Amino acid sequence: MKASSPKAARTPKWPGQFGLTQAPFSKDLEDEALWMPTSRLAIVAEIVEALEGRHHVAFVGDSGGGKTCILRALRRRLPEAEYRLTYCHNATLGRRDFYRQLCVALGLSPKATAAAVFHAVSDHVEELGRERVHPVFLLDEAHLLQQQVLEHLHMLANYQWDSKPLLSLVLVGLPELWSQLALRRNRSLWSRIHCRISLGAPTVADTTEYVEHRLHQAGATQLLFGAGALTILHEATRGQLRDIDRVATNAMRLAARRKQSLVDRDLLEHVLERDQQPGAPT
User: Fold this and answer.
1) Cα within 13 Å of Cα(281), Cβ side
2) Which residues contact 248 (CB under 8 A, 6 or more apart)?
3) Which of 1, 66, 210, 257 falls between 20 and 30 A from 59, CA-CA?
4) pLDDT per residue rounded down to tens, the chain (282 residues)
């Protein structure tokens, strides 16, 4: 019997009721379609400047605050011919497995021991330096890094008596990363991080701009949320993008079922009440 091919995901019908070509708050976005408020654009520029100066970077922010968007924007800003970006997201590994992960990401053959893996990564970094390509290691969820890895990272940042910065580390995580790096035993690493950034809390204007951007990307010609609804949306989600996406999508779905052309304050309050009580009737 011939195996059936997997079915493609069906496009929901409700966006069409608002004249949209797609669901406006889906996660499937190309880098070019990313939204970035002015405040975050300034942070991207600051990180680019630090990497151009061959410095190390640490930046923290609450979950859903836009850290991943900043990393994706950073990827677009750095010329591929001059930088080699390596993204590592599994931060819970021990020291040897952490360096093995780096080897795989760099296209190297993982070695058997922690020392061999470390030297393989170090040799590769030096080779890139000779080719005038600057390696940048993006360590996401860095607040989850084991202490043995944190204690060892400064060795990656230490080439030729600190006189030759052949790579840049970019540590990204939740605010507790700050206190971890400030510990006495991590002082060697902390002292080498010259660019330290803490993402500020999003504003109502940021939330409004984000909603407008996502709706425009989906084909909207006007704002489909009332001013009062946007204020409540910001207060309920604290401007966290993942929460905005979820609540705004549920609100538009309900508005479509009710044949409303606008998400108003009352409808959004109802959605938020249901959000706190799963299974409640619509």
Assistant:
1) 0
2) 24, 25, 211, 214, 225, 233, 263
3) 210
4) 444 444 545 668 899 999 999 999 987 766 666 677 777 888 999 999 999 998 999 999 988 777 888 888 898 899 988 898 888 877 787 877 777 777 776 777 766 566 776 777 777 777 776 778 888 889 899 999 988 888 878 777 665 545 556 778 899 999 999 999 999 999 988 998 999 999 888 889 989 999 999 999 899 998 899 999 999 999 999 998 889 999 999 999 999 999 999 999 999 999 999 887 655 555
Q: How far apart are CA 244 and CA 207, in angstroms?
A: 8
Do 250 and 237 meet the contact criterion of CB atoms below 8 Å apart?
A: no
Q: How far apart are CA 268 and CA 233, in angstroms?
A: 7
Instruction: Report the C-alpha gap between 143 and 150 in whole angstroms.
Output: 10
Contact between 103 and 111 (Cβ < 8 Å): yes
The residue whose two tokens read 């880098």 is 31
Q: Which of 262, 259, 160 is nearest to 248 (CA)?
A: 262
In this structure, what are the phi and psi dihedrals at residue 3, rounded to the nearest 5 degrees? -70, 135
157 phi and psi, to 5 degrees? -85, 5
Sorted by where each starts, the structural domains of the chain and their CATH numbers stand as 36-198 (3.40.50.300), 202-275 (1.10.8)
Structure token pair of residue 100: 């093995």
d(CA 220, CA 73): 24
